[in-house]
Amino acid sequence: MTGTGYLAMPWAPTARGYCAPRRLVVKLALGEAPERVPTRSDVRAGRAAPEAQLGHGALDRLLRRFGGQARIARLHDAACAHEPGQRHHGFDDLEHTCGVARIFEVALAEHCNVLDAVDALRQLAIVDWAIPHYFCVSEQDAPAPPPPPKDAPRDAEARASTLERIGATRIHEIEPGDPAVVVAVIDTGTAKRHPELAGQLRAGFDAVNFRQEEVGHGLALVGDFSARDIDPDEAHNGHGTACASLLKAKGTVLHPGLAGECGAQPVRALASAMPPGGDKVVGLGAIPDIEFAFKHAVDLGARIVNMSFGTSQTSLSPGDPPPHAETVAYAIAKGAIPVAASGNTATDELIYPAALPGVIAVGAVDADDRPAPFTTRGSHVALCAPGERLLAADIEGYQWVTGTSFAAPLVAGAAALLVSRALRHAIALGASEIRHLLVHTARPWRTAAGEGVGVGTLDVGAALAALDRRLAISTDFEPAALEA
């Protein structure tokens, strides 16, 4: 979750969330984004030079006043752009109306009060919003699970229990999954050479790109963090590996991943960092890197996007827009299905992207299928899935994991099977249809669960059965409707 905690920020002394010095993100109003500004992909690859101004007099004067010479690049690549150095050409109407084509990353030459600069930019009519360059610190704030097993457990009952609880025993005999249906796992990366995952994953990419000095004092970056590339391998944080294994494990020790034959694309959008005095690394991601990763995964064909991270509303400053709103709207319009963990704060609050409209927000249940005490609640939570003491892959070996982070991939895997099933009948399901199927077939709470935990627990078998009934009805009546 985003938060200052132990991180000192003299450049933004009153900010609630942690942000980088000398960096801002600005979204211009529709029709105001200059086409000539290159994308940061091309700038960082040395294919283009950043612009020093956006071509709007008052805006450019403010940037010079607060931070001297600016370096400006467009955050996203155009979906249809393939030629290096020209990725800022060809944004379509959807990219402009959703706003992803109008977001710019600004690096200032001099230190300034970031919040003062943001506040000044917000006064301009051509600026939809301006925010600091926030980071998302994904800490393990769920209760710690038992120590990881030294050797892989071989208790078949323990391995199968999670799938039995969500109605997924032998589910792949009913629907094996379609390799063309891709689940993007936006996380800390994946240990792709793990015995459970080797040969199971599609090509992915690494969107992390920042420097230690941008993190300031308090967190020490470890591993790869300074260059975007196509290798999403993770070596210091097993979070993304655990999520990927719940979707795509071979079944050597773990139960086969719920996504079956569906594709899984590992996307590394969070780096690894060590807190002062800590003994466990946490995931650290720049919000702009996460935004880029999200859109790029959708543009590469991801149908389901799993997001086991979040930024709480309380960590944002007044006037900040919800993170990821533009990319979520874009993804849904493109037919993708965003799934996100609700959070582990044990409170009723908004955590983004889970709280954004159209996202399937997933809470966690304990071993007795009751809402886990740590799960974040809210009216936006759609349903829950097992999220306590699940066996998953680690960087090496295996681990027990706990948190809504690990409930979300189970729902993402169920969504992938539903999309696969529909495609066999030449029907494309979007986010709203998938949400409806999952919510209306969830197992209702056996006892009073309170508010903000959705309608019940994921039941994959029931969701597939409901879809089959719908497909049968569709087949019976469509020809008559066409004749009429």
Automatic annotation (TrEMBL):
SUPFAM superfamilies, A to Z: Subtilisin-like (SSF52743)
Keyword Protein biosynthesis: no
GO molecular function, one term: serine-type endopeptidase activity
PANTHER family assigned to the protein according to its UniProt record, in alphabetical order: CEREVISIN-RELATED (PTHR43806:SF11), PEPTIDASE S8 (PTHR43806)
InterPro entries in alphabetical order: Peptidase_S8/S53_dom, Peptidase_S8/S53_dom_sf, Peptidase_S8_Ser-AS, Peptidase_S8_subtilisin-like, Peptidase_S8_subtilisin-rel
Coiled-coil region list: none
Protein name: Peptidase S8
Keyword Hydrolase: yes
Record keywords, A-Z: Hydrolase, Protease, Serine protease
UniProt organism field: Ferruginivarius sediminum
Catalytic residues as annotated in Swiss-Prot or TrEMBL: D187 (charge relay system), H239 (charge relay system), S405 (charge relay system)
Family according to the record: Belongs to the peptidase S8 family.
Ranges where the Peptidase S8/S53 domain occurs: 180-442
A biological process from GO: proteolysis
